[in-house]
Amino acid sequence: MDTSRPSCSLLILLALYILQLAGCMNAKINFREKEKQILDQILGPGRYDARIRPSGINGTGDGPTLVRVNLYLRSISKIDDYKMEYSVQLTFREQWLDERLKFNNLGGRLKYLTLTEANRVWMPDLFFSNEKEGHFHNIIMPNVYIRIFPNGNVLYSIRISLTLSCPMNLKLYPLDKQTCSLRMASYGWTTDDLVFLWKEGDPVQVVKNLHLPRFTLEKFLTDYCNSKTNTGEYSCLKVDLLFKREFSYYLIQIYIPCCMLVIVSWVSFWLDQGAVPARVSLGVTTLLTMATQSSGINASLPPVSYTKAIDVWTGVCLTFVFGALLEFALVNYASRSDMHRENMKKSRREMEAAANMDAASDLLDTDSNTTFAMMRQCEIHMKPPEKNCCRMWMSKFPTRSKRIDVISRITFPLVFALFNLAYWSTYLFRDEDEEK
Question: Which DSSP symbol is given to 83?
Answer without folding.
Answer: T
